[in-house]
Amino acid sequence: xxxxxxxxxxxxxxxxxxxxxxxxxxxxxxxxxxxxxxxxxxxxxxxxxxxxxxxxxxxxxxxxxxxxxxxxxxxxxxxxxxxxxxxxxxxxxxxxxxxxxxxxxxxxxxxxxxxxxxxxxxxxxxxxxxxxxxxxxxxxxxxxxxxxxxxxxxxxxxxxxxxxxxxxxxxxxxxxxxxxxxxxxxxxxxxxxxxxxxxxxxxxxxxxxxxxxxxxxxxxxxxxxxxxxxxxxxxxxxxxxxxxxxxxxxxxxxxxxxxxxxxxxxxxxxxxxxxxxxxxxxxxxxxxxxxxxxxxxxxxxxxxxxxxxxxxxxxxxxxxxxxxxxxxxxxxxxxxxxxxxxxxxxxxxxxxxxxxxxxxxxxxxxxxxxxxxxxxxxxxxxxxxxxxxxxxxxxxxxxxxxxxxxxxxxxxxxxxxxxxxxxxxxxxxxxxxxxxxxxxxxxxxxxxxxxxxxxxxxxxxxxxxxxxxxxxxxxxxxxxx
Amino acid sequence: xxxxxxxxxxxxxxxxxxxxxxxxxxxxxxxxxxxxxxxxxxxxxxxxxxxxxxxxxxxxxxxxxxxxxxxxxxxxxxxxxxxxxxxxxxxxxxxxxxxxxxxxxxxxxxxxxxxxxxxxxxxxxxxxxxxxxxxxxxxxxxxxxxxxxxxxxxxxxxxxxxxxxxxxxxxxxxxxxxxxxxxxxxxxxxxxxxxxxxxxxxxxxxxxxxxxxxxxxxxxxxxxxxxxxxxxxxxxxxxxxxxxxxxxxxxxxx
Lengths: 481, 254
Description:
heterodimer; A: mainly alpha; two-stranded antiparallel sheet; 27 helices; B: mainly alpha; Fumarate Reductase Cytochrome B subunit; two-stranded antiparallel ribbon; elongated
């Protein structure tokens, strides 16, 4: 209630400052001088009614506001039916509430239920009235300052106009019987990224003039239609989603596929990228299995328990809008790139004692090299016979564990199983063919290290020997001639 | 006395042609895999239809190379045991002294290059270099082709070892072939533009005298000294004839 009163103050001021001078210029109230007579007393501020429970209510009327109101041309007795110019019956009311209910009944003499029902917000109120909850028109519309429903200037801002009804808990009903409770929390709306926008910026077609009646079959249909308004401003993001898997399954008829508002919310849209934990939790609603695995992983654990902001959340790998099918070849081939976004950068992983050589060693080995070339072949409509191992094939997807400390043995133990998914006949020696992202050294893979050194020494010596031999030969031949 | 001598049999000529083809294919497809990130390699690999194709071609050529090598080794062992082949390619102590002798010759300390049999020391070192290198390439190549199979019998570390050996030994073999064999049989001023005996199977006698005098002596059943003496006499005769012809010319002009 306080909200509405506060909201009413501004338009009231508007009427006083702008419309009052006009009214004063033609100070003529119609209807046989009844109004001036009433106002003779009621225009004075300070007149109050006292109820039986000692509640009070101001009984003064601002002539200017009344003149400018929708009912400005009516005589006082048109609404105050018991009263006339010479008739002022004394009445008693138990409480302010009882008075207001009684007073509001007079509105219904002119405004029939059919008329009221046309406004979609009223349908529900009428239903409530039938269940015994009184309908007090003046609670929303005011009394002497009653505004025109249409027409500019009825409210100072569109938001105020809309909030007069939508601040209350209202319910949308859909053809299939579903319903959706709607209540706009004005404070959260104002602090959201869209706090400065008008309602109709998003609710296209609605304004203080128009409130089109729209019918949706289901609650989901309503949500899908509502999210369409986002693209009017965020067209770049919208086109990105068209390439994503969510849109793909939506267009296949899976109506539960998420649209803008499912992840971003509606009136309480937060600034993106601010809170990574919240970002991860958005995906949880549908992908709870993946989320749980992630939460236990080395990344998720650091995010949730240590509040580490370096670790990736869902959107860092899957992206926020162009979410690819994670089982597609395209996505698979991008995985080393995704991981290298952090794991090839010393400034990010260096502080955790992680080597940045992991990507390089992968790319220079059989799998990495093959993958790199497959990527280049892809442009020529090439389909490789089998997928090539990428980071996630050994390290896991959402359940990535640490490769140092107690988890290291688990990684090693699982490695054979992972090799076997592509090399089914591999035995326990096979995982050792991969030098675990380390270059050969005397302690790790000494044979490989020594062989490399031997050739590094031997090949230059051989080249020098061969060149010398050839040069000497030519030189001698030249001398002999 | 013959003008030319048979140096290589038809089987060796065919074998050499097969190895040229196999070797060139192996080098092209192998080097492009070794230096896979260079622009040329990428272009080449994509032209061949992708890395999978390149690997198939490389392995097929490897099989061809291996087959020819195995046939060669079996034939050589059988031929030597059955005494159809002279063990002329075996490295002896003489080859080391020849090497020292030749270097002295190049430096002007000796007047003549080292005398040799059917194969001189450079050819022998080249042969054994290619043979041992080839065997290593075959072995390591097989491991790289079928790592799952080979790790049943050996530890995993031998696979990256095989990769290093295969990749580095390839460079060694390439250097021996490109830097040494190609020089000796194409660009060396003694044979330029091409030593054709591996293609025709024949070698002129005069080259036998110069390059393989011991072999010539063995075939003609004489001593190298007799041949050298004969050549020296021949040269002197030629020189005298030339001088007389010169004098004749001068006299006529007068």
